[in-house]
Amino acid sequence: MHNLINQVSSIININLIWYILLFPFIFFWIWSILFIVRDISHRTNSLIYQLFAILLWTVPWIWFMLYFVFRPYRSLDDKEWRLSINTLSVQCPDCWELNHKDNKFCTNCWDWLTTDCKECTKKYYKWYDYCPYCGAPNLELE
User: Fold this and answer.
1) 3-class DSSP assignment, residue 125
2) Which position among 1, 70, 85, 125 has the lowest Cβ density within 10 Å, counted as fewest Cβ atoms?
3) HSE-up (13 A, CA, CB side) for residue 115
4) pLDDT tens string 81-123
């Protein structure tokens, strides 16, 4: 009886050691699946692409590298942010500083961003070759 108890306790100890050793790997695997789900949902709205990326990672671990190769480079939030920056700002041709599109002067070098059309007297950006309102040539560029 004593021998049976020793065998059972040694089996329990071995199993406990395996559980302790495997727990970090299992924890990392579950955490990484949750990371993939969150990350891919911020990068694309395509449900098929999202499911493919999640399945790609849940099978073997080597697919983790493939996920980072095939995932979209920019997140959806980043695309919206860049679009808003592009529609609300202009770049100074002299110092390349981003300025609000309604500014008349650059906030960095204080150079003029706009010029007056000689024909229709409307303001437009000075780096345009022609007035966007009447088509008159920009005489300051000549």
Assistant:
1) strand
2) 1
3) 17
4) 676 667 778 888 888 888 888 888 888 888 888 888 888 888 8
